[in-house]
Amino acid sequence: MNRISWLAVPDDTTAPEGVQKLHAKARANLGFVPNVFRAQALNPDTLLAWWNDFNTLVNRDGHLSTIDRELLAVVVSGLNRCTYCAVSHGAALHESSGDPALADTVAMNWRHATLSAQQAALCAYAEKLTVTPAHMTEQDLHDLRAACLNDHAILEATQVIGMFNMTNRVSSALGFTPNAEYNSKGR
Predict the structure, then answer these.
(1) Is residue 71 within 8 Å of 93, Cβ to Cβ?
(2) Quick one: 66-173 is in which CATH superfamily?
(3) What angle do CA 183, 69, 113 make, to 5 degrees?
(4) Which tens digit of pLDDT belongs to each residue from 142-166?
(5) Residue 25 and residue 4: Cα distance in Å, rounded?
(6) DSSP code of 7?
(7) Whole-angstrom distance between the N-terminal and C-terminal Cα of the chain?
(8) Residue among 120, 182, 187 at smallest CA distance from 157
(9) Separation of alpha carbons 74 and 112, rounded Å
């Protein structure tokens, strides 16, 4: 196996029961275990806590569509130059949108992608919150409301953006390598 983190990566057979269950569920749903799971298994309690929060924000029906949540993931990950998340969520955006060029374009420059007015407003919000969080103002929320997003959707978008900023930093700081399987997903 190629190196997937700059830290030690525990062997699957010695992982605690909760981590083994997470790996089994990933294998059943995706056909493989994401390297982000393997790499964070060094501290199993924090892996499971992170996954619970991540799963709640990203992998469920909510106030934003799956495409919108993955769009935010790719915008944030592209801005942060997080290889792991840009590749893995680019694959998810390919799959959820059915548009093979969308994720690649969004990862490079979302302004060049064909987006709805609401998606463009979400991307602009994600960019500002990622790049210049100290410059956020109440007007940013008015811009989202003008794009027909309600307060529930705005809160969810903010939380998803925050989750990806945190996950990008962990993944980049520790050299997480995306699984090769992502390269063929959605293509």
Answers:
(1) yes
(2) AhpD-like (1.20.1290.10)
(3) 70
(4) 999 999 999 999 999 999 999 999 9
(5) 20
(6) S
(7) 24
(8) 120
(9) 14
Cβ-based neighbours of 177, under 8 Å, separated by 6 or more: 2, 3, 4, 5, 35, 83, 84
Tokens of 133: 């969080």
Mean pLDDT of 73-101: 95
Rounded to whole angstroms, the Cα distance separating 73 from 84 reads: 11
Residue 12 pLDDT: 83
In the chain, where are the structural domains located? 12-59, 66-173
pLDDT at 99 over 60: yes
pLDDT in tens, 3-37: 999 999 998 888 899 999 999 999 999 999 999 99
Q: Determine contact, residues 130/161, Cβ cutoff 8 Å.
A: yes
Would you state the structure tokens that stand for residue 34, as one six-digit string?
């994401």
Tokens of 143: 């811009």
Domain 12-59: CATH class, spelled out: mainly alpha
